[in-house]
Hints:
Structural class: mainly alpha
Number of helices: 22
CATH superfamily: Amino acid/polyamine transporter I
Helix content: over 70%
Strand content: under 5%
Number of domains: 1
Oligomer: single chain
Number of strands: 2
CATH topology: Amino acid/polyamine transporter I
Shape: globular
Largest sheet: 2 strands, antiparallel
Radius of gyration: 22 Å
CATH architecture: Up-down Bundle
Amino acid sequence: xxxxxxxxxxVNDFVWLILLFLLIGTGIFYSxxxxxxxxxxxxxxxxxxxGGFSLTGEKAGKDGMSSFQALATAxxxxxxxGNIAGCATALVSGGPGAIFWMWLASFxxxxxxxxxxVLAQKTRVRDDNGxxxxxxxxxxYEAFPGAFGEFLARFFSFAIIFALGFMGxxxxxxxxxxxxxxxxxxxxxxxxxxxxxxxxxxxxxxIERIAGFTEKVVPFMALLYLIGGVIIIxxxxxxxxxxxxxxxxxxxxxxxxxxxxxxxxxxQAMRYGVARGLFSNEAGMGSTPHAHAMAKVDEPQHQGETAxxxxxxxxxxxxxxxxxxxxxxxxxxxxxxxxxxxxPVAQEAFATGFGKFGAIFVAICLLFFAFSTIIxxxxxxxxxxxxxxxxxxxxxxxxxxxxxxLVGALLKVELVWNLSDLFNGLMVLPNLLALxxxxxxxxxxxxxxKIIRNEERKTxxxxxxxxxxxxxxxTSRNVQKGMQIQGEF
Length: 489
């Protein structure tokens, strides 16, 4: 088994080395193609999300869910254990400079996720029960009609089902049971049973229960963690200026800091920072479009703007707070020297302000982060189960996921985690191919042109209104061209 795990690790390293360049390259390409939509439309996006903020939105149903519910479902998956353990590992392996590269990767990732959400909205369909559904598989069909598109879509579906639905949720369950065993001595099988029961209750309630859960729990868990993090930063406020300075200095000259950090190279800082940023916010990975496709918005680009806020919250808010908690604690140099990594690094940092309660606080936050990720990942994988096998297979799929959650709580899952990473990587490539092929549609959306959804076009054709649709699109393009010409003068 160890030999097989070593092979998986080696393949993983090779695959992700290539994909990291592709992901960051796609982000840069889309930033220029959309004329930096993440900057131009950020204020509008922020107001769109929080202008009418409510924890009791309308119930989700066959016609989808509210824009905020879709965002909350996406953030449920984005903000996970990686925001604590992953950030700590990036700091230990890449030094404080990794945070700078994490920010940079996420800045470009905001343009990528804008494109994903726009395309998911444009290409969404209704399943055999009349329920709105969508995701990368549908814009893969549009990007590559014929056998190649069919192959990419099916390949992506199988990869995401295994990566997130099965193996990924085993790892998340294991994170919860480990944290509660460490903090409270709770038997892992008891924790696994409880997590599985609550997950089953939410799964079997369908989209209505999933949306209701995420819109209430995600804001609460984020606020709880941010309040705790800010308290620790304030306790260690005297170290804050040096901590912030170290992020920028170590991004280019780690040796200037001295101590164990001096042994870290710029290449390591860049590698771990970029990887952590992309892994955490999932921009370009093809997972969150499943949620954004279901948002009830007037125009596809409106949900694209909302999706950008998800990356911002995940990276520039939650991950940054974790980084500053660890950096202001003054313990990073010792952690690097002693080889401590992952969650224990964060627990030690929180203990500088909370004492013994620090480990308990981190365990509670991990529970919320990991469980919300389980719900989000189930939802994404379920959309692909419907595509491959129809809605009749959703209940058997739910049963398998619940079993994975239970088993995952009891096992050491290093191999499962590595396999999950590998399948994550395999699903990224077809998603990026489709994104790059459809860049023209995203460009038009970012420039303000009207984007007609495929379902709207189909309905119009059935009603004999195809000419009206063509007229609206042409008028939108002409108006946009007129605005551009006016801008030149």
